[in-house]
Amino acid sequence: MTTYGTNPKSSNDLAPKLEYITRGINQHKRSGLATRRPWKQMLDLGSFNIPRKLATVITRVRANTDYFQTNYTIVVLFSVFLSLIWNPFSLLILLAVLGAWLFLYFLRDEPLSVFDREIDHRIVLIVMSVLSLSILFLTDAKLNIAVAIVAGATVVLSHAAVRKTEDLYQNDEATSLLNP
Predict the structure, then answer these.
(1) What is the average pLDDT value for the chain, to the nearest integer?
(2) Among 32, 43, 51, 114, which is 20 to 30 Å from 104 by CA?
(3) Is the pTM of this model over 0.90?
C-alpha cells in the first residue's frame, strides 16, 4: 500500500534526506564560491599604489576584474541591496533575483548547459545582470538602483585601478604547492 503525500511517522525518517540536502548545499557553497577571493587579499593595504601611466591602469583593471570578478559582483549587488532598504517591494524582488543569482551563477560547480550546449560564465553574468536590472527597473526604485550601480561600479573600478597585480596569483601557487 502506498502512502503518497503523507507525513513521515518519525523524525528519523527525515534524517537521511536532510543530511543529503545539507551535504549537497555545503558542497555547492565550497565549489561555487571557490572563485571568490579572500576579502583580506582583496583589501590588503600593501597592494595599493597610484599608477603613473594610463596603460598600467588599463592592465590593472583587466587583471583585477578577471581575478576578483566574484568579489566585484558581490560589491555591486550589496550596493543595490543597500539602496533598496527603503523600498520593501523592490527589496523582495531583489531577494528573488538574488536567489536566481545563487543558483545560476554563484553556486554552480559546472558550466550551465542549455540544449546540450555549455554557456560561458561571462554570458551567464551578462544575462543575469541585464535581467536583474530589467526586473528591478520595473519597480519604483529606478533612481536608487541607478545611483547604486554607478556607486558600485565606481568603487570596483577605483579598486581595480589602484590594486597592484604582481601578487595576485602568488597565493594560488602557494596553496597548490601545500595541497597537491
Answers:
(1) 75
(2) 43
(3) no
